User: Fold this.
Amino acid sequence: MKVFVVGAHGQLGKAFTLAMPDHVQLFAPTKNELDVTKPDIVKRAIHEAQPDVVVNCAAYTRVDQAEQEQDEAFAINADGAAHVAQAAIAAGARVIHISTDYVFGDTQSTPYLPTDQTAPLNVYGASKLAGEERVLRIATGRAVILRTAWLYGRHGQNFLKTMLRLMREKSELRVVADQIGTPTSAESLAQAIWSAAARPSLHGTLHWTDAGVASWYDFAYAIKEEALALGLLAQPIRIHPIRSEDYPTLARRPRYSVLDKTGSIAALGLHPPHWRVALRATLKDLANA
Ligand SMILES: NC(=O)c1ccc[n+]([C@@H]2O[C@H](COP(=O)([O-])OP(=O)(O)OC[C@H]3O[C@@H](n4cnc5c(N)ncnc54)[C@H](OP(=O)(O)O)[C@@H]3O)[C@@H](O)[C@H]2O)c1
Assistant:
């Protein structure tokens, strides 16, 4: 199988390339080599590689900054996604496109099915939803949209890394306790993408996160406990649960964005680890690095 990954050097892209199975020939250009906003370059690179599957992990992911950089967010997350899908289809490849729980709004307090009503609350979510719609239109029957949430991993910048840094620097922390989702390890999502890549007839919108639910406060508290146990943190730190109103951000975020994975578990033949188990594994890797 020949796989072409776009955004290979982001946190998910790195986890995905590192998890590559033996029988795969991988093309993993850098952002300098392949900018998704440049359709001719995208088309040429994918045509030359003639892959079976194109995986798009590239995105504009600065959720708050996107409120002030709407054009850039849409150029990458919507137009860029479309350029990748067009080039993939022109080269006869399938597309696996990564998307987000932030396509949903504040409409539910039970896990969202892939078919549930989308209602993004912020520019980032709107740009990702526009990307999903364009990919599905361009690559009908040949695209998998894989929505995920609260991603963290060994590579790149994420909530886990930020918390570890702040826990070492500060004497106490305040973390939002009224937004509920599922922390998801880039390593377990990478397995789900490889499983989707290996299933040529799979298409449509799927959800993939680790198992269980948490608030950002619960996630931070678990990071503290696991980091202390592994010696990544020398001293315990007091963490206070706070309301979203007490931590104003440019972008509004959903109060509840847990994704229902029932269909994806069957379709991909995988069971996600509980988020706390995956967190421990990632912290062990960081401790051994
Ligand atoms: N992070 C999360 O919590 C989260 C949650 C839900 C869904 N997702 C989705 O998961 C996917 C992977 O996200 P991630 O966390 O791995 O994000 P990331 O670490 O920001 O990686 C995105 C990559 O895309 C690259 N990129 C940006 N603009 C590009 C362009 N014009 N052309 C080519 N590459 C470009 C970035 O390069 P630079 O860094 O150099 O700009 C970066 O390497 C995205 O689709 C994201 O929307 C993420």
Q: What stands out?
A: The chain has a mean pLDDT of 97. Residues 126 and 169 are 35 Å apart (CA to CA).
